[in-house]
TrEMBL record:
Keywords for the protein's UniProt record, in alphabetical order: Molybdenum, Repeat, Transport
PANTHER family recorded: DNA-BINDING TRANSCRIPTIONAL DUAL REGULATOR MODE, TRANSCRIPTIONAL REGULATOR MODE
Every Mop domain range: 123-189
Name listed for the protein in its UniProt record: Transcriptional regulator modE
Alphabetized GO MF terms: molybdenum ion binding
Length: 261
């Protein structure tokens, strides 16, 4: 299937912007003229002028500013509001494309917007990006401890400031994305006792080695993968055959939280 959604913006029940009007605005921005923009967009000058006039009347600020000229009209340019409208339309169009791709890919999570955006477009230097739901909030004198339950049922604690909790609007039940770097994770056997920090159990999916370090990939359930970059000395003696069970450990303070307001 090659699905394509056509984005239309209505003001109440009246058309404000659609693909044809957006194409016209783009051509006006390029040509600096309503008449030339109309020609490049493949519509008549009258239709273009009516569209621009209608948008200018509906919008809280003009979309196009123009100067009267001779036959065919004078110069025209997008206002700051018009530029923002084009950027907004482009972003919304990208989001529609992401949703349509998700429809055709059963592996893409569609429970919430954050999962969808993280799958397709969120790029960070943090190798680990795990989606979950806030299940507990506990504050102390310096930080808040946020406990998040992952899709596979395991839990992660993140330590963030009170101000960050307020800024993110965190509450029980909120969907969040947890970010932490692979070098912040250490790998241990299931039998090794650990006094503090996050501990996630997983099954070894892949190990890549060089002379000094190894990158380890664990399946931690719920279609989630966890990545660790460790010194070879630190994993000496561990069971490292594919399918072996290990535990990954990292401190709550190493975890960043992202969410959609």
């Amino acid at each position: 299937m090659d699905l394509k959604a056509l984005l239309t913006l209505n003001n109440a029940d009246k058309l404000f912007a659609n693909p044809k009007r957006i194409a016209l605005l783009k051509q006006i921005r390029i040509t600096g003229s309503i008449s030339q923009g109309a020609k490049q967009a493949g519509i008549s000058y009258k239709a273009a002028w009516d569209a621009v006039n209608d948008m200018n009347l509906q919008a809280p600020q003009p979309v196009i500013s123009s100067e009267k000229g001779g036959k065919g009209g004078g110069g025209a340019k997008l206002t700051e509001f018009g530029e923002r409208l084009l950027k907004l339309y482009e972003l919304m169009d990208q989001m529609q494309d992401m949703v349509l791709k998700a429809l055709l890919d059963a592996a893409v999570p569609m429970d919430n917007l954050l999962d969808l955006m993280a799958h397709f477009s969120l790029k960070t230097s943090a190798r680990n990006q795990l989606a979950g739901e806030v299940i507990a909030l506990k504050d102390d004198s310096l930080n808040d401890n946020v406990r998040v339950k992952l899709a596979g049922g395991q839990e992660i604690d993140a330590a963030i400031t009170h101000a960050s909790t307020d800024k993110l609007g965190l509450h029980i039940g909120k969907k969040v994305l947890l970010l932490f770097k692979a070098p912040a994770v250490s790998i241990h056997s299931l039998q090794q006792p650990l006094s503090s920090g996050n501990r996630l159990k997983g099954q070894l999916l892949q190990i890549k080695r060089d002379t000094q370090r190894s990158e380890i990939t664990l399946d931690i359930g719920g279609n989630d993968r966890l990545y660790a970059s460790v010194c070879n000395d630190s994993i000496e003696g561990l069971p490292l055959a594919l399918g072996d069970h290990l535990q990954a450990c990292f401190e709550p303070g190493q975890t960043l939280i992202a969410c959609v307001s």
